[in-house]
Amino acid sequence: MDAGIVGLPNVGKSTLFNALTKANALAANYPFATIEPNVGVVPIPDPRLDTIVSFIPTQKIVPAALRLVDIAGIVKGASAGEGLGNKFLSHIREVDAILHVVRCFTKAPGGEEVLHVSGSVDPLRDIEVINTELMLADLETIDGALGKAERAAKSGDKESIARFEVLKKLKPHLSAGKPARSLKVDDPEQQRQMRMLGMISAKRVLYVMNVDEDDLEGQSAACKAVRELAAGEGSEVVPVCARIESELSQLPDAERTEMLEALGLKEPALAAVARAAYHLLGLQSFFTAGPKEVRAWTVSCGATAPQGAGVIHTDFERGFIRAEIYSLDDLAQYKNERAIREAGRLRTEGRDYVMKDGDICHFLFNV
Q: Strands, DSSP E only, in the chain?
């Protein structure tokens, strides 16, 4: 699954993307520095891996990862072709969730001004600009689909009827300035048609507040306003100083630890961004552990044991027999898998088992 980084030009999107993916180049300080979307793979920091390795020594540790897409800055009028317009909107349509970078900082290091496309710092205005463009793009999609959907619904086909009903509900909802994700749809077939429509404004959002260096916890008036807005729409918020995170990402481990201590931080803020994006997408991790490798694997919340096995290899899902599973608490208590088995704590789970975050697994299969 992919998360796309969006925002107005010069809010720190590309700086954040480069820090997350440990890229070397920093974003240029002018609009449209990113034209084609850059794609990077971001490791998900997970201290549980270190705990597992403390009991099961291994040659290699592989964390879970998330694909991140850096999408060029959107400007007011993008849905009508302003700036680089619909090209950017098409890139957003392809991702599964949105990381919306919001400018809450006022000055760059050294006190110099960083230009803002609207001439001033106002995060709520910026959020409204982006959300409006996404909703306008969705309305354009709906207007193009309504006529065809209405004709198809006259055939009496249940799927066609459900699609037409969803489109009829969406149009006034979006026209009132409400994103598609806030539309409540109870009918299961209508819910399915809603997902198939691929509305941009239906995607879940994580607001990444790019803050000043003296406001790392995001307590400014601007940040408080963003937090209130996010709480009202059920979105998540993470404060980040993109420039500090960019510096941290370039440092050796020892120097990074020293800088974090000086800043009073336990970990880079980007760790919180990566984890929040992971959860935003409805993802969780399970683990496999052995002398060659300890690895975190990614599955959707609600995935069954065979589906989890299929993440490792499609043959594992096709020939699934059973899963042997224990928890991190079991490992901490009994110290090794043999003792866990002897204590009767190694669970045998079948095809209907729903994977839990943090499961440590062995899959048995036959093809």
A: 2-6, 38-43, 61-62, 65-70, 97-103, 204-210, 236-240, 283-289, 294-300, 320-326, 347-349, 360-365
